[in-house]
Specification:
The chain has a domain at 29-151. The chain is 60% helix and 2% strand. The chain contains six helices and two strands. It has helices spanning 29-54, 74-93, 95-119, 131-149, 162-167, 169-180; strands at 66-67, 70-71. β1 (66-67) and β2 (70-71) form a beta hairpin. α1 (29-54) crosses α3 (95-119) and α1 (29-54) runs antiparallel to α4. The relative contact order is 0.15.
């Protein structure tokens, strides 16, 4: 019985495909950046959430209750603790998981900032956002995206970078052959 091979569709010359699930070497120096970013942001959010819960503010209370200069309520405190713990999980796992988690949560924080901005002074502001919360959300979102994208995107990545190699496999192979021979 003859076996049939299914061939992969050929990509046009010059195009590239980079999957987000490519793995860095375990000890790659970029993993430290992703871990530190996730850990720092997780620590900030965890501290904010815990301080909010210790103030015994109602779960959906929309008064002027603030912690560390940011308005909060029980729901926002619990949400902050959950996201902070998720970032700690990313810090522990590291590698591409931490990088992707940082990027995704960064985008979500920026979107949350826009949503919070639209809900200021409305009855739908159940997380008790004020303008300082919106600005904080934008800052955390940009910081998380920066930590997640560091060394992964850019026009001047070094040629030993695993993401550069994945985007330029022909040139990477050629440079490797030149180094060996």
């Amino acid at each position: 019985m003859a076996s049939t091979q299914v061939s992969q569709p050929q990509q046009p010359k010059g195009s590239f495909r980079v999957a987000l699930d490519e793995h860095l070497p375990v000890d790659h120096r970029l993993s430290r950046v992703y871990r530190v970013g996730a850990g720092l942001m997780g620590l900030v959010l965890l501290a904010f959430g815990i301080l909010g819960l210790t103030h015994n503010i109602g779960f959906f209370d929309i008064g002027h209750h603030s912690v560390a200069g940011l308005n909060t309520n029980g729901a926002l405190s619990v949400l902050s603790i959950c996201v902070g713990l998720l970032l700690f999980v990313g810090m522990v796992i590291g590698g591409n998981f931490a990088s992707t988690l940082n990027m995704v949560l960064g985008v979500l924080f920026i979107l949350n900032g826009f949503i919070g901005l639209g809900m200021l002074d409305t009855d739908y502001n159940f997380l008790n956002f004020r303008i300082q919360n919106v600005i904080f959300s934008f800052i955390v979102g940009v910081a998380l995206m920066w930590f997640g994208m560091y060394g992964r995107v850019g026009s001047a990545l070094p040629h030993d970078n695993p993401y550069w190699k994945a985007r330029h496999p022909d040139q990477a192979a050629e440079e490797e052959r030149a180094r060996q021979g």
